[in-house]
Design goal:
By secondary structure, this protein is of the alpha+beta class. It is about 65% helix and about 10% strand. The longest helix has about 60 residues. It is found in: Cell membrane.
Length: about 375
């Protein structure tokens, strides 16, 4: 058995030689840190072999073994080192090939925005990176598609708003010029012109308010003052506020809440969304038709439905009904405006973490607002 002091001396010499070789390897890694992975792996392999050889040489000299034994030991160590170096080079080549294949896929994705992972087996880390890149490019494509849709909606909105502004402005100008030039002189006509001017001004002000509200929604600047609100009270207020319009149109309007349903919401904003739906339903329901507003619970969520008798909406128009400025065969917006009412309703409901949808039901449509209880 080797004495302890001799064993400790061997360990000390071997550790010293290994530390010197390791220090040289670390220095080379730092100096070559910008080179390829293959070069770095070769340095690691060479440093390992060098540390082993240095330790063996030091130990054999200390132990005074024969030259033959020393030669055999060094030869075996060198062969093992060369094999390790070869394995390191093969591994480095595989890593570089996988990295370059992944880089090529990224560069090709820059042309059309679609990322296609390399059709070869990659190391686990590179394969995980490829999966993350695929998911990231998919999210980017979704964002681009939404941006294109929003841009198309903005252009369509500008076109509709320009058209809807031009008509009342032309009427306002004509009536103002008639009053200014004295073309209209009798008191009855003057009063009628004044009333029309006031009505058109109110309509334009409402359109500007809608545009401002929609811009806040799209900019994420809609600030909600949430408090506990009863849906029964909200339905009652909405029905009371729209009853004059329904009476003038000859439409039966009713509201019903099956139970007291408290939700955390901004009463003013949520009331505006519901009012948009009810006014929309009244305007598209024929005389003697009915509009019903019902609050209840569906699938664990507070639910408000607005059912009308408009005759239904073409199925192909249903998915786009809440888009900005969308108009199907018949506009589904309050007052036949610029297509903002339903878009505003959707923005407000979604800001409350809710859902809004529409479907054909019976002789008309059924608009549904769902909110967390």
């Amino acid at each position: 058995m080797i004495p302890f002091h001799a064993f400790a001396e061997v360990v000390a010499y071997a550790a010293g030689a290994a530390l010197v070789a390791g220090g040289v390897g670390v220095g080379l890694l730092y100096a070559l840190r910008a080179r390829s992975i293959t070069t770095l792996l070769a340095v690691v392999s060479a440093a390992t072999v060098l540390a082993t050889v240095a330790g063996i040489v030091t130990i054999t000299l200390k132990m005074l073994i024969t030259d033959h034994d020393r030669s055999v030991t060094l030869t075996v160590t060198a062969i093992a080192g060369l094999v390790g170096l070869g394995v390191s080079l093969v591994l480095g080549h595989r890593l570089i090939a996988g990295t370059r294949a992944l880089l090529g896929s990224v560069r090709r994705a820059g042309d059309d925005g679609r990322f296609v992972p390399p059709d070869r087996t990659l190391p686990a880390e590179l394969d995980e990176l490829a999966a993350e890149l695929s998911a990231a490019y998919a999210r980017l494509e979704t964002a681009r598609a939404r941006e294109r849709t929003l841009e198309a909606s903005r252009r369509e909105l500008v076109a509709w708003v320009s058209h809807d502004l031009r008509t009342p402005l032309a009427g306002l100008r004509a009536m103002a010029e008639a009053l200014e030039d004295g073309v209209v002189a009798d008191a009855e006509t003057v009063r009628r012109y004044h009333a029309q001017i006031r009505a058109e001004a109110d309509r334009l002000a409402a359109m500007v308010d809608d545009l401002f509200e929609l811009s806040r929604i799209h900019a994420g600047a809609l600030r909600l003052s949430r408090r506990r609100v009863g849906l029964a009270e909200l339905v009652s207020d909405t029905v009371a506020g729209t009853e004059p319009l329904a009476r003038a149109k000859g439409v039966r309007l009713s509201g019903l809440a099956h139970e007291i349903l408290p939700v955390e919401a901004d009463a003013a904003e949520l009331g505006r969304a519901l009012r948009n739906l009810v006014v929309n339903a009244i305007r598209h329901t024929p005389e003697d038709g009915g509009v019903e507003v019902v609050a209840g619970v569906e699938r664990g969520m507070a639910c408000v439905t607005v059912s009308d008798a408009c005759g239904g909406i073409p199925e192909q128009d249903l998915p786009r009904l809440f888009d900005v400025a969308f108009r199907g065969e018949a506009a589904r917006t309050p007052g036949g405006g610029a297509g903002l009412g339903l878009a505003i309703a959707r923005g407000i409901v979604e800001a409350h973490d809710g859902e809004i949808g529409v479907s054909n039901a019976g002789t008309g449509c059924r608009f549904v607002i769902r909110l967390p209880l």
